[in-house]
Design a protein that fits this description.
Blueprint lengths: L8 E9 L6 H18 L4 E8 L6 H11 L3 E6 L5 H11 L4 E4 L11 H11 L3 E8 L5 H18 L7 E8 H8 L8 H8 L3 E7 L12 H15 L2 H29 L7 H34 L6 E4 L5 H12 L1
Length: 335
């Protein structure tokens, strides 16, 4: 049985994880005192930590079960396969039961010590969303800082100034905001854009981004590019309009080539120049391929939406499983 949202649980902390065995001890050592302090500060209010194991191939699942023995507020959700960071985050948000839900990564680049400040700001200001905004990204590489700057500039052009610059997936959501997100039909959810799009009252807390505590980044260049493509195609038809303008541009270029050809003929240059023909063919071919690629991205998203396949499957939830299943799961993860 699933818990009733808000029934004694003030705060849920959702943590997507993929192969984070090296970072888990440090995460627990920093996160638990913060959350225990929140519970004491709110008269013993309950909290839960929803750790979503996104099909890890290392000992992440086994370590989580070990930590659960001494930390009853820790809840383990395991996906049947690796479904991606946003899908794991979706699974955690859908299963969290707190009045407020904080999402944070396991690498400790976003400090858990900011969670009490976020909760206090949400309560005192009657806010539904509190963003964690990075004021210092010196821990990141120069390439990542520059590409992130371009990404946030482009996304703000798409969804407007409601999206704070340099706000990632470290945020607090009220129960009303979480329920609104759960009702959205999007197959490929990008919460950095979906959350501002809701238009709920929001605030922000600032922090300095730290270095990853252990392990390797789960967002290499290929996944960053995929995130950018999903963000643009999921929230704007602008690329299709770009294809239209490319078609218009190619039309005028063709007109110029026609004028050039007629002029050459009138001047007595009867031998056609191969370079202008070659350039024209290359240009038109490139424009056509770009337009087909853009159309393919949107058709692919329509195809995915029509299929209505879930983006993740939950194989195990420690809050639902009986004791016998929990014991068997611990044994499996240790083998």
């Amino acid at each position: 049985m699933s818990a009733v949202p808000g029934a004694g649980t003030v705060l849920s902390v959702v943590i997507p994880m993929f192969n984070e065995e090296s970072a888990l001890p440090a995460l627990v050592a920093r996160l638990r005192p913060v959350l225990d302090g929140i519970g004491a500060g709110y008269g013993g209010a309950g909290y839960e930590v929803v750790a979503v194991d996104d099909g890890s191939s290392d000992r992440t699942a086994a370590l989580l079960e070990d930590f659960r023995i001494g930390w009853p507020e820790l809840r383990v959700v395991r996906l049947r396969r690796n479904s991606g960071h946003q899908a794991a985050l979706t699974a955690g948000l859908h299963r969290a039961v707190g009045d407020y839900v904080v999402s944070i990564d396991a690498d400790l680049q976003d400090p858990p010590e900011k969670i009490p400040e976020m909760l206090e700001l949400a309560r005192s200001g009657d806010l539904d969303i509190v963003y964690g905004v990075r004021t210092d990204r010196s821990a990141d590489t120069g390439f990542k800082r520059r590409t992130a700057g371009v990404y946030y500039w482009l996304m703000r052009r798409l969804v407007g100034d409601r999206m704070p610059s340099q706000a990632g997936d470290f945020r607090l959501l009220s129960r009303q905001a979480v329920d609104a997100l759960k009702e959205l039909p999007d197959q490929q959810q990008v919460y950095r854009l979906l959350v501002p799009w809701l238009g709920f009252p929001s605030g922000q807390v600032s922090y300095e981004r730290e270095e990853r505590v252990a392990g390797e980044t789960k967002y290499p260049l290929s996944r960053m590019i995929r995130l950018g493509v999903d963000s643009v195609t999921g929230f704007s038809a602008a690329p299709l309009r770009v294809a239209t303008w490319l078609g218009v541009l190619s039309f005028f270029v063709c007109l110029l080539l026609i004028v050039f050809t007629l002029g050459a003929f009138a001047a007595g240059h009867v031998v056609p120049g191969w370079s202008s023909l070659f350039i024209g063919i290359l240009f038109l071919g490139a424009v056509q391929l770009i337009c087909l690629g853009l159309l393919g991205e949107y058709v692919g998203r329509i195809y995915t939406a029509v299929q209505r396949r879930p983006t993740f499957f939950v194989g195990y939830d420690s809050a639902d499983a009986p004791r016998s299943v929990r014991a068997a799961t611990v044994d499996e993860t240790r083998d």
